[in-house]
Each structure stands twice: as C-alpha cells, then as structure tokens.
C-alpha cells in the first residue's frame, strides 16, 4: 500500500493542528476502539469558517485527510463546508489506497459535527445531521477494508 | 529526509545472505537439470536436492531425510500440514484445535475446514502470551485429530511449550503440528526433542530467498498432499523442485545454526537494551507478554498508549527506520492484531503497537537510533491525539 | 565417457538465463523488503512486484495488471485454477471437463474434485494430438462449470484451438482454463485473443528460475484461493511474495517475446532437421501426432518400435545427450505415457517413445550429434530385443 | 532415480547377450505391453548351467538384472539357479531404486522358465513351477511402482 506524495506531505506536515481555545463549534468523531478519533474546532465569521484546527489519533490517511479538510474548509460558508464529500477529500490528496478510503469519512464527519455544533449553540437548525456516517450505530469504518494479515 | 537506513523488521523478512546466494547460484544457470530426469544433469540436480534435504533433516533432528518436504513458503507448509493432516486418509470430519494467535496461514485453512465438516476450537493463549498445557488438556477431545500451536509467535515473540503440548495431544490420539517459521534457526529446534508430527518453515525468515520453505513430516504420518500433479517430493508436494531454493534453504539454516551460539546472546542483549531503553523513555509504554516464560531473542512488541501504530511507523520510516505495527503486516488495515487481542491487550492499545525485530545486521547504534527517533515521534503524535489527556488520566487512575 | 554435453530436454526445464538472474539478484540481497510492509524498503519491493505484474500483464495481453497472480510454479497455478474455479462461491458439485492428455497438475485436482462431488469428463484428443471443438461441444452440459484444455501439450507439442474451445465453453456458461506452461513465450500467447478465463504459467520453462510461476485470472472471475493466509496478491494467493522471482519471471517472458521473431523459425528449422534426419535414419520410427494442424516449434516426439525408452535414454546420456522418454519425466516408472495412449499410440510403442525438445542454446551440431549417436544405440537395443524380428514381421505385414 | 555404478556397468556392458542356437532350455517372460520381455537360453551340463545367454527388451534395470543373473547362474546346479531370489539379484547389483525392484523378477523368472523348459524336455518334473511370478495371471510388474509423472 503506497500513499501519494500529497498524502505524505499532509501527514508529515499537517496544517492547522491544535485546538481553538474559544471555539464557536466543536466536532468530535470516532473512538479509540476503532483506532481513529478526530476533533475539529472552528471559529465562524459571518457564516463562514474563519479559523479551523484539528487533532487526530489515527493512521496516515486519517491525519492527512484531517489536515486537508481543514485547508479546504477554511473560508468556506458553513453550507459549503458540510457539502465536502469524502471523494473530494480523497481527490484533493491525489487519491487514497482503496483500503483507506473510509478514512476520509472521519474528516468530513468531524467537520459536519463542528458546523452543526455551532448552529445548535446558536439556536439554529443543524444542517449536516442525517449525513453523518458516524451517527449511524451500524457504521463500520473498516467495512471496506481489504487489507492483508500479519507476516 | 535522511540517508540513514535501519532495518528492524527481521521477523517480517530478511535479506538473503550473500553466502546463501553464492551457494544457490550455480543451480540456476549451470546445474539447472530437472531433479526428476534420469540423465546426468538431472541426477546432479537430484543429488543436490537430496543433499540439501539431508542437511535440513540433520539440522532439525529428523530421523530420516525424507521427513523433509521442500515447499514454496511458510504459508504453503502451513496449508499443507493443516489441510493435509486433517483430511488424511479421506477424513472429512473431526475436531481440530489451533491456538488463537496462530498466523493466518494456519487460521485460514482451519477456518476453511470448519466450513467443510470439521469442528475447530481456537485455544486462547494466556496473558503471558503462552499456550498453557492445562488449557490444551481441557480442549482435547476423543475426536481431536490435529492440534496446531506455533512454536514462536511472530508478533510478540513468545515461545510455546511444544514438547508438553505434543505429549498431551498424543495421549489423546491427536497429531501435533507446529508453525516454526519464526523459531527455526533462531533458537534450538529439534523435532525429536519437541516430539512434533509436523512443522512448517519459511526460508525468507532465515536469510534464504523468498519463495522457499519446508515442511517436516514425521515418518509414517499420513497426509493428503496439497499441491498435486507430477508426484514430486515422494508424492507429497508436486511441482518441479526448486533445487536452487532447496540448496539456499539448507545453506541458510546451517549458517543460522553455526552462528547461533554467538548470535543468540548478541541479539538478546540488543533486545534487552531496546526494551529497557524504550520503557525508560516512553511514558506508559509497555512490553507485550512481558511475563512470558520463554521468548525469542530477536522480537520485542510494545504498546505505546495514545499513539496509532501506522502513524508511528510512517514517521519512523521518514527517519529511515523500518519496523512494524499492529497486525505486523496488516499495514493496509486498521484491524487490530488478533494476536494482541488474544492475550488480552485492550483494543485501543492494540492500535498503537510497535514490533521491533532484530537480526544479523542489527547493531547497538541501530537500536539507539530507534530510541532517539521514537521519543519525539511519540510526543508529537500524542500531542495530536484529542483524547490523550483523558487517556492519561485514566491510566493514572488505573495505576492507583 | 564423453566430454560432450548436449541438452535437448528444454520442455522439462530450462537453465535460468544470465540476464534473468542479473535482473533478479538485487531483490535478494538489497531490495529485500516484504512487499506488504509500508516503509520504504517495503514500498520499493511492492513497486518492483507491481512493475513485474504490469510487464507480465502487458506481455500476455491482460486487460489489467491485477489479472496476473504470481505463484510458485505451474503446478500451483494449475491446482489453484482447477480447484479454485470449480469451487468458487462455495460450489460443491457440477460438471468439469478436462482433456485426457492434460498434465497431471490438472488431472490430479480434477480427479480429486471427482471424489468430492463433482463429475469429471476426460475428453480424449483426436489421433492428431488435438482436442477437437466438436468433441468439446458434445461433452459440454448445462451444468458444466469449468473446461480445462492445455494450450500446448508438453509431450507431443501439439497446440489446441483454445479460442474456439473457449467460445464453445462460454456459450454453455462454463469457464475455460488453459495450461500454457509449454506455450508461453514460445508462440504467440494473448489471453484476449484466446478468450480464456484463466491460464497457468511456469517460470522454469522460459529461462526463469524454478519456483516461479503465474496465473492469469480474468477480471471479475470468482475463484476460491488455494494458498490461504496473509491475503497477499489481493487475497488470491497468500505467502510473502517472491519479488525476485516475479522480476525474474517478467524479465524472462520479455526476453522470450523479444527474441521469438528470430528464435521461433530457428527452432522450427532445427526441429524439422531433427524430424527428417531421424525418420530417414531409424527404420520404422514415427513422429507422434504427425498430422497435428499446429505444433510447437521446439518439441518433437517419436516412437521407435522395438526399443525401450529408458534404455535408449541411458545410452544417450552416456554420450552426453539429455532427452526424455515415455511419460517424459516418469523416469522412475515404466507406466506408458497417458498422453501417447490418449492419441491412440499402442502401448508397446509408447514404451519406446523419445521426446526431443530444443531451446535457446541448441545448435545444428547438437541435433546432428543426437542423430549420429542415436542410430547405433537403437541398433544395439533392437539386437538385444528378443521379439524384434517378430515385431518387424508384424510391422511389415501391417504395412502391406 | 539413480542407478548404482554396478547397474550402469551391467547395463552399458551387458554380459552374455545373445541366443544359444542349440539351447537345451529356453525361457521367455514378460510382454511388450508391459514394457519388458526377457529371453534366456541355456546349455545344461550334468545338471549344471554350462552356458547361458539372454536378450532383453526393457529399462536399464531390466537389462542389468538380466545380465547379472546370467553371471550368477553360470556354473550353478539347476536347483541352485532356480533358487536365486530377486533380492539376491538386486543385492548383487549394489541395490536397485525402489521403483525398479520389480525388474529383478523378470530375470529370475526367465531363468526359472529356462530351467523348467530343460527339465520338461527331458521328461523330468519342472522344479520352478509355482514360484514364477509371471505365471500368475494377476501379476502386475508395476504394482510397486512409485514413480513420478510427466514434466
Ligand atoms: C509464524 C509465521 N507463519 C507463517 C508465515 C508465512 O510464511 P511465508 O510468508 O513464507 O508464506 C509467517 C511469515 O510471514 C510467519 O511469521
Ligand atoms: C504442461 C505443463 N503443465 C504444468 C507443468 C508443471 O509445472 P511446474 O513444474 O512448474 O510445477 C509442466 C511442467 O512440469 C507442464 O509441462
């Protein structure tokens, strides 16, 4: 399994790492039992994503997709941000190995959660709810896994 | 990023030793005959093959050379042993016991048999990473036909009490197969002392080329052959014999055995340096199966809480270091290692495992370089982990 | 007895070409990584492996590289294809057709399936050594799941009309597998033109080392894997990949293809010289399957009445000549070749067959030396044959 | 499968090849369908084998065992000659590959036949009848074969 150069760049030098202390919205998805957890904090300015930071526990693809999604989302309207698809994320990274495609869901779900969190905090209707894969109790991030076993 | 290159994944594969390559080369281009042909070139090939068989037989303490069957890899040896012994003499049902932390080359055929009329028990090892004889005794049944317990575990390096397990299996009329891919050449290995009926070996774990392997099958043991056709290897493994590969395997094994008296302690000392250094420098790190009564000299497996294995591996790789994680080579997958789970390692820690395996070309400087490099990598990843503080609180709490 | 050494058994095995060895060597000692590992050494290995896969795919006209699965030999490819395709998706019964003169690496798994709930038809070739499409059409049934007909026969060198046979099989919903161990690299081989679903290859027939092979499996074709474990080769063949072997196989195949325009006609001319020379000099000798519409350029198989094959082979060997007889490499057995019997060769003649197979290093002088040497050998053995005069009378009578 | 030097010597330089024109006894066993045929002709002197010659169609082992059996039998009494066992023949040759053990039966059977032929011609009781493997209609010379198939 080989990652693209861009994946390796975002993994090795992830952008926007950290936590915004006085964030307007926080999204956290995944859990350590699955092996990946992501937390996104956002500042919202005029319904646009002003600042955005992430923290991720996860594999190379999880970190790279987290990093790129923060870059993609910065400056977008909230509606635009929640519309980012996992395929767009993968594409932006120059592709992901098939076994790692599920990782991009982590990043888009985290972003959606943060946006909805902001909206709910402000008494508005959440706009991403229903499209968040991790909300589905049957969601199995590794269902598409196609990896090999130990040697 | 760096010119330095430090290979610490000898349990995954080894380079072919130049002496092994030199020994095999003449059989590729010069003595290239088919070992089944009667003419001189064929007889020469056959002699080289039988000589290699004798050398392997001697090295593993087999009673007769024809107890050694050359195969193409550890996987083929395992598949052949599990399916071939279970289905010997046309048997289509019965009870099989495999330890739960076997390599998939044993588990998969056992599972396949499980779908085809056999009953399969997966015997869990104890938390010390060892299959306990009492547990086997309890699992054995009158209809148990085959027990397969690996000699040395490829992820955590624990060594199983095979001789005791074999005695128990035999008392109940079952055969015992052991996957010795990780132990052959690395610690004493003697089929007579272990009392096994069959054992699997892989060439590329002992500095022979990939694509070589062998299966020990005790004389008189019935086995349905797996690769079938021309009837080579006394009808137990068809396919034109890889004479060069057999010569390489025998040569590699003899080198392992010759060098072990010095190499074993050297590796064990390096491993201890690694274990002490790592546990001393990385907070909360633990050695897996630390309480194992016997362990291989060259494998150490750690959990490093708060870190995901692949990310750690990639950062180390960027510094020129080759190690493995999780299910060792399940690198394409986030599924946590079935081996670590089988010894009770919590799933969230299993995702952060690190296997370091040492070999012929490993130096103290290599180990030190890994330790130096690992510390900032772990720090960095933990800082990126949104749950790390919570986790530490939990670990601290648990420690109270 | 002599210093001369003339190898004329290229259909049994070939020497590894030095260029092939040179190409593979770096992957033994230097780029030795496990192709499943994520770190650099593993990625390099993986790239070399995938590059080899692409080259093989291109050479055989596959639509996609992942239609090529690397194996350890022709036998493994055959076993995997026959058992894996027949039992795909859990199938446990159905009808299988194999030609009666398949290699045992196909026959044995077919027979095994025959004992496990499948029905097996052995389709006889015609006396010209060819499986006739009409005969396949008549044998196909609605429940036929798999047809296996070899591309080029290893003993008599006849080439089967695979494209027509594949069309017929597909019309009835069956898959077609072809054993191309003897044709790959030696005549045009294109999976698309042939329309096959699977094809088996062996490295040591094309100047790659023994212990290498490949299986073509058309994209979308379901197959139960045969070697199981770590899930390598996209779960279709487990076992740490033999990267050096894959590189060798790809290199060897490209060399065959590059040299074929000149080499094919050169070998065919040598073969014709051999056939004319032998039939002209040895009384009553016959070329087997002489009426075959298409034959391989490098194989000729004769019956030499009144002579027993092994005795002939041993006398030729004493003169430094390597050829094969009877069931080609059934050298340990007096059982007459099932191939010759399948094309109607009388048993007593089948015992006296001679297979000569030419290759890259064969010269005109080699062929002439064989002819020179053979004449007195045959004379001598016929003189020792207590029945020879009676047989000649019979042959003469039959000729009237 | 590898023949001993002695087998190769007797195969390459077989002793006593030919047919005794005015033989006292003739024995012929095997048939071309099985792949091996042997004919032994003997001269008998005072119930001893004076001269002996053979012709054999067969493999290396068939020729070598034929050759050695003629050497062994020459000078023996008829009773001694028919008592030669296939294991003695194999032993005398420095062993035979397992797959070829059956070949020695050809030679001993041929010799027995020739002796019995001599005895019957002289109105005496045959002494080997009943011990000749080839007389058994179920005899399969290749039953012990353990060879490999084609490559
Ligand atoms: C314990 C064990 N068994 C079997 C195997 C499989 O061996 P191979 O890769 O030669 O098929 C391995 C290594 O991959 C192993 O470590
Ligand atoms: C037609 C054919 N199929 C299969 C095989 C088996 O190939 P391998 O010896 O590589 O297993 C051979 C040669 O031995 C062959 O000639």
What would your notes on this structure say?
The complex is a heterotetramer, with 2 copies of chain A (151 residues) and 2 copies of chain B (400 residues). Helix content of chain A is 35%, strand content 18%. The two termini of chain A are 15 Å apart. Chain A has helices at residues 5-12, 60-73, 78-82, 86-92, 103-121; strands spanning 25-31, 36-45, 48-57. The model of chain A is unreliable at 144-150 (pLDDT under 50). Chain A is of the alpha+beta class and 151 residues long. By secondary structure, chain B is an alpha/beta fold. The radius of gyration of chain B is 22 Å and the shape is globular. Residues 327-332 of chain B have low confidence and may be disordered. Chains in contact: A-B, A-C, B-C, B-D, C-D. At the B-C interface, α3, α4, α5, α10 and α11 of B face α3, α4, α5, α10 and α11 of C. The complex binds pyridoxal-5'-phosphate (2 copies).
Produce the secondary structure layout.
The complex is a heterotetramer, with 2 copies of chain A (151 residues) and 2 copies of chain B (400 residues).
Chain A: H1 5-12, E1 25-31, E2 36-45, E3 48-57, H2 60-73, H3 78-82, H4 86-92, H5 103-121
Antiparallel strand pairs in A: 1-2, 2-3
Chain B: E1 6-7, H1 18-24, H2 26-29, H3 40-60, E2 68-71, H4 74-86, E3 94-99, H5 104-115, E4 118-123, H6 133-139, E5 144-148, H7 162-171, E6 175-179, H8 191-194, E7 198-202, E8 213-217, H9 232-235, H10 243-281, E9 286-287, E10 299-303, H11 309-318, E11 321-322, E12 324-325, H12 338-342, H13 347-350, E13 353-357, H14 364-384, H15 388-399
Parallel strand pairs in B: 1-11, 3-4, 3-5, 5-6, 6-7
Antiparallel strand pairs in B: 2-8, 7-8, 9-10, 10-13, 12-13
The complex binds pyridoxal-5'-phosphate (2 copies).
The succession of helices and strands of chain B, N to C, reads EHHHEHEHEHEHEHEEHHEEHEEHHEHH
Mean pLDDT of chain B: 95
**Ligands present:** pyridoxal-5'-phosphate
Q: Alpha-carbon distance between the termini of chain A?
A: 15 Å
Shape of chain B: globular
- Mean pLDDT of chain A equals 90
Instruction: Identify the most extensive interface between protein chains.
Output: B-C, 72 and 73 residues
Give start-end ranges of low-pLDDT stretches of chain B: 327-332
CATH class call of the largest domain in chain B: Alpha Beta
How much β-strand is present in the residues of chain A?
15-25%
Major sheet strand order of chain A? 1-2-3
Work out the helicity level of chain A. Answer: 25-40%
Fraction of residues in helix of chain B: 40-55%
Indicate the overall shape of chain A: globular
Report strand % of chain B: 5-15%
- Alpha-beta classification of chain A: alpha+beta
The secondary structure category of chain B is alpha/beta
Element order of chain A: H for helix, E for strand: HEEEHHHH
Radius of gyration of chain B (Å): 22 Å
The radius of gyration of chain A is 15 Å
Tell me the quaternary state: heterotetramer
């Amino acid at each position: 399994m080989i990652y693209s150069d861009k994946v390796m760049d975002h993994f090795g030098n992830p952008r926007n790492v950290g936590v915004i202390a006085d964030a307007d919205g926080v999204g956290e998805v995944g859990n350590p039992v699955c092996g990946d957890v992501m937390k996104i904090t956002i500042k919202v300015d005029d319904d646009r994503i002003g600042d955005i930071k992430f923290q991720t526990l996860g594999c190379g693809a999880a970190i790279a997709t987290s990093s790129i999604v923060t870059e993609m989302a910065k400056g977008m309207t909230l509606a635009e941000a929640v519309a980012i698809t996992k395929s767009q994320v993968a594409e932006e990274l120059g592709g992901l190995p098939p076994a790692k495609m599920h990782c991009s869901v982590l990043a888009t779900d985290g972003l959606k959660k943060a946006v909805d969190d902001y909206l709910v905090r402000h008494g508005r209707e959440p706009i991403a709810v229903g499209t968040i894969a991790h909300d589905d109790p049957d969601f199995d991030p590794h269902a598409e896994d196609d990896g090999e076993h130990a040697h | 990023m760096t010119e330095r290159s430090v290979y610490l994944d000898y349990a995954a594969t080894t380079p072919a030793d130049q002496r092994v390559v030199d020994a095999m080369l003449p059989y590729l281009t010069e003595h290239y005959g088919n070992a089944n042909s009667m003419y001189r070139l064929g007889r020469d090939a056959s002699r080289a093959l039988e000589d290699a068989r004798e050398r392997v037989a001697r090295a593993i303490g087999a009673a007769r050379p024809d107890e050694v069957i050359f195969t193409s890899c550890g996987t083929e040896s395992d598949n052949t042993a599990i399916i071939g012994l279970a289905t010997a003499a046309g048997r289509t049902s019965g009870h099989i016991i495999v330890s739960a932390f076997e390599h998939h080359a044993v588990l998969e055929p056992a599972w396949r048999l499980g779908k085809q009329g056999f009953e399969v028990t997966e015997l869990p090892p104890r938390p010390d990473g060892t299959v306990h004889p009492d547990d086997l005794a309890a699992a054995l049944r009158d209809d148990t036909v085959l027990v397969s317990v690996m000699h040395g575990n490829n992820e955590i390096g624990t060594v199983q009490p095979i001789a005791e397990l074999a005695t128990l299996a035999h008392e109940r009329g079952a055969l015992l197969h052991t996957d010795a891919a990780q132990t052959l050449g690395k610690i004493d290995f003697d089929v007579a002392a272990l009392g096994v009926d069959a054992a699997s070996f892989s060439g590329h774990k002992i500095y022979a080329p990939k694509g070589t392997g062998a299966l020990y099958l005790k004389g008189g043991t019935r086995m349905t052959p797996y690769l079938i056709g021309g009837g080579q290897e006394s009808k137990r493994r068809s396919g034109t014999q890889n004479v060069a590969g057999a010569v390489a395997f025998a040569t590699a094994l003899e080198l392992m055995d010759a060098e072990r008296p010095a190499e074993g302690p050297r590796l064990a000392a390096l491993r201890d340096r690694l274990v002490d250094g790592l546990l001393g420098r990385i907070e909360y790190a633990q050695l897996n199966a630390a309480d194992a009564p016997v362990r291989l000299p060259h494998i150490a497996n750690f959990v490093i809480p708060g870190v995901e294995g692949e990310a750690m591996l990639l950062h180390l790789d960027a510094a020129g270091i080759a190690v493995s994680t999780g299910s060792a080579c399940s690198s394409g997958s986030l599924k946590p290692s079935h081996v670590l789970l089988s010894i009770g390692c919590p799933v969230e820690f299993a995702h952060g495992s690190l296997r370091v395996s040492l070999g012929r070309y490993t130096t103290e400087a290599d180990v030190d370089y890994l330790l130096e490099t690992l510390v900032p990598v772990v720090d960095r990843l933990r800082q990126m982990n949104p749950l790390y503080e919570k986790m530490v609180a939990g670990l601290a709490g648990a420690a109270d």
